Amino acid sequence: MSRLSVEHFPDCDLEVTGTVLRGVRVADIREDAYARLKDRPIITAALRELGGRGPSPEEERWAQRVAEEARKLPLNRGRKGYPAEHYRRIALRCLKLYDDGRRDVLKELAAEEDRPYQTIRDWVRRARDPELGFLAPGRQGRIDFRPGPNLYRKEK
Fold first, then answer.
1. 70-96 confidence digits (pLDDT tens)
2. Interatomic CA distance for residues 127 and 121, integer angstroms
3. By CB neighbour count within 10 A (0-12 exposed, 13-18 middle, 19+ buried), where does 132 fall?
4. Is 136 exposed, middle or buried (0-12, 13-18, 19+ CB in 10 A)?
5. What is the pTM of this model?
6. What crossing angle do the helices spanning 105-113 and 117-128 adopt, rounded to 10°?
7. Close Cβ partners of 113 (under 8 Å, ≥ 6 residues apart)
8. What is the pLDDT of residues 16-28, one digit of tens each?
9. Measured between alpha carbons, how far is 108 from 102 in angstroms, rounded to an integer?
10. Where would I find the H helices in 73-154?
């Protein structure tokens, strides 16, 4: 399933609100759809009933081959994110601003990058992540930017 659409019935007086949408269990819809699609004769009969022709044997073989090939490919889920060099650049810029005496490092970096403050905060958090280690962990309640163990380490 690649897309789900919720639409009003033309004669319905009820509004589809966020509360209603949060109550919709997409996994249940998907599982129900898969269960119904497994029964191929019903789909073929429905297509014929609606005036369309059912798939030819050749089209069914083609669809089966395409489905098998698609199953072999990895799923591309979520955003790809940024490469490590992006977070290294952010870490270096944070250190420079902090060394220049700035205490509003994230605010200044947000203005420079033309991004929301929250995005910059997430980038800095990722740069502090031990996996990357470009910035040392912060201290609660303190404005603190120190180089991490991997900031100046060369990529192999």
1. 888 888 777 788 999 999 999 999 999
2. 10
3. middle
4. middle
5. 0.52
6. 110
7. 119, 120
8. 777 777 887 878 8
9. 8
10. 84-99, 105-113, 117-128
